[in-house]
Design a protein that fits this description.
By secondary structure, the protein is an alpha/beta fold. The chain starts with 15 loop residues before the first strand and ends in a 7-residue tail after the last strand. The structure holds zinc ion (2 copies).
């Protein structure tokens, strides 16, 4: 029991892991936003992937865009990177005046350069009218082609591994180790032993997932070809369960759901997972804290 006059202990700001969106693929859906993840570590936000609408999702998660400092891109498919430049411009418009670093595979530098070029008119106008500092010099992109240590500060150590996303190379999974938790984000990948190694013993694995019977239904006559392509690039629910089991993670969250159809129930998503993984497993929802 605490003594009656125990001094109040200052609690550190609660760490959060938020699913900003949970669908896979570039086509907008009325049911789910495209997959990306927000970590808030002792009050500081870290963003993994910047799909369409990510700035709005961050606002819904109560993040001030001007607080952004570190952004991690798993790979350069549009459903992971298309709003990177947009997010930077909107953060700058919201008062960003400190450097922002983006980490990801090539050609991320070119993607950001071209994307920022599209906002040159707006940036010049606001510098002129609102006295803002220039956005360009605040943006730092570091490209990597191999896994390893990506970034480290006083709150988090970020490591990565190459995953297997068929012809889209390089593609990364990231692991975030903080004082309170270890969190792994798979990126897009088919079953990959390197991801098992990265996720070894993690508290939380957020993994992409594909529900094959749902794809067969959507694809119709084109099904065999589409199925073959998807199997080389993405993970079935059975494979996700296999990775979680082999890595021995404490909790598994399915995200980047393909297809993102509401007719596929949580039970259907988890059925394949359960063949291999007996730990805690959930199907992610937009803006859910996991
Ligand atoms: Zn994707
Ligand atoms: Zn992809």
């Amino acid at each position: 029991m605490l003594p009656f006059a125990a001094p109040l202990i200052a609690m550190p700001a609660r760490d959060r892991v938020v699913l900003l969106g949970t669908k896979g693929g570039p086509t907008p859906s009325p049911f789910r936003a495209p997959a990306s993840v927000l970590l808030v570590i002792e009050g500081r936000p870290y963003v993994i992937d910047t799909p369409n609408g990510v700035a709005g999702q961050l606002a819904k998660a109560a993040i001030k865009l001007s607080d952004l400092r570190q952004i991690f891109i798993t790979h350069n498919h549009s459903d992971h990177v298309i709003d990177a430049g947009t997010l930077l411009v909107l953060a700058w418009g919201a008062g960003l005046d400190s450097p922002v670093a983006l980490h990801g595979p090539p050609p991320l530098k070119q993607i950001i350069r071209d994307s920022l070029a599209a906002s040159r008119f707006d940036v010049a106008a606001r510098m002129r009218e609102e006295g803002r500092i220039n956005l360009g010099p605040l943006v730092h992109v570091s490209e990597r082609s191999n896994g390893g240590l990506v970034y480290q500060d006083d709150r988090v150590r970020v490591t990565s591994t190459l995953v297997d996303h068929y012809t889209v190379k390089p593609a990364f999974a990231y692991r975030f180790d903080t004082a309170s938790r270890s969190v792994v984000v798979s990126g897009d990948t088919t079953y990959c032993p390197r991801l098992v190694e990265l996720a070894r013993g993690a508290d939380l694995l957020i993994h992409e997932a594909m529900y094959l019977p749902g794809i067969d239904q959507l694809a119709g006559e084109n099904a065999p070809k589409l199925r073959e392509h998807l199997l080389k690039s993405h993970s079935t629910t059975e494979q996700v369960g296999q990775v979680a089991a082999e890595a021995g993670v404490k909790k598994l969250v399915l995200s980047h759901l393909v297809p993102a159809s509401p007719s596929i129930t949580d039970q259907m998503w988890l059925e394949g997972v359960r063949k291999h993984f007996t730990g805690e497993a959930i199907v992610g929802r937009d803006l859910q804290e996991v």
